[in-house]
């Protein structure tokens, strides 16, 4: 399965330190390795989770890449995509997505 990885941190400090991003990348890498997923793209936003996913520059690019390549969006943890159930439900209508920390969940 081809996947597009999406990472998000909330602040410039988190983005510059790399710590939050490194952990997210490792979750996705391990899930991809364990499930024979092929990472075809990676996108990163440094923006508050209060901004809806479809208004984030890199999230929009990740969603477009999923549509273009018939790929599945993968995030390290669900809250990196959104904490808003309405946002999640809307995204479920647009693309398939999985969470690296629970890769078998639908």
What does this structure look like?
- The protein has 106 residues and is of the alpha/beta class.
- It contains five helices and four strands.
- It has helices at 12-17, 19-35, 57-69, 78-81, 85-94, and strands at residues 2-9, 38-46, 72-75, 97-99.
- It has a four-stranded parallel sheet, sandwiched between helices.
- It is globular and about 35 Å long.
- The model has no long low-confidence stretch (mean pLDDT 92).
Give a short overview:
This protein is α/β, with parallel strands linked by helices. The chain is 47% helix and 23% strand.
- Alpha-carbon distance between the termini? 15 Å
- SSE string, helices as H and strands as E: EHHEHEHHE
- What is the molecular shape? globular
Largest sheet: 4 strands, parallel
Q: On the 0-100 scale, what is the average pLDDT? A: 92
Number of strands: 4
Side by side, the strands of the main sheet go 2-1-3-4
| Structural class estimated from helices and strands | alpha/beta
Low-confidence region ranges? none
Task: Looking at this protein, list some descriptive labels.
106 residues, alpha/beta, four-stranded parallel beta sheet
List the helices and strands and how they pair.
Layout: E1 2-9, H1 12-17, H2 19-35, E2 38-46, H3 57-69, E3 72-75, H4 78-81, H5 85-94, E4 97-99
Parallel strand pairs: 1-2, 1-3, 3-4
């Amino acid at each position: 399965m081809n996947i597009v990885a999406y990472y998000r941190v909330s602040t410039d400090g988190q983005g510059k330190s790399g710590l939050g991003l490194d952990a997210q990348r490792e979750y996705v890498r391990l899930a991809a390795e364990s499930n024979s997923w092929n990472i075809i793209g990676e996108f990163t936003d440094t923006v508050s989770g209060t901004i809806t996913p479809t208004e984030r520059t890199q999230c929009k690019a990740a969603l477009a890449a999923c549509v273009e390549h018939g790929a599945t969006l993968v995030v390290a943890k669900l809250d990196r995509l959104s904490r808003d159930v309405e946002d999640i439900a809307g995204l479920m209508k647009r693309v398939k997505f999985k969470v690296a920390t629970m890769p078998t969940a639908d």
